[in-house]
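Repro:
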Amino acid sequence: MKIAIGCDPNAAQMKREIIRLLEDNGYGYCDFGSDDPIYANTALKVAEAVASGTFERGILLCGTGIGMSLAANKVPGAYAVVCADSYSVERSILSNNANILTFGAQTHGFEWAKKETLHWLGLRYVAGGRSQDKIDRIYAIEKSFLK
């Protein structure tokens, strides 16, 4: 699995920790940077890379994860979620088929973020389950605005 990762300057250290985790666990990745204080610029790059299929998943980090999620979700085909607990991390894939995970370096500890990143990367969405109608509706809403 190839991962696109990026952050703003607030989360540079957390990104380094996550990158080391990816390397230690055999994940391919591309670092989309951490120097731009306008987090939306980095979010756009990662979201486009994931939505295009070049990368299977993305990880975006900023102070809270909120801004990155808002910006990434403007890209059609990017489904970014801010997760603050383990259950949300799990459901982001199993119930919602999210492809970008966002965290906050100022709201989450490094060890928690590393543990949940591995958890998230290990999960796979199974099409056709109970959530399929809900996900299909999200895709239809998105498509209706692309006309």
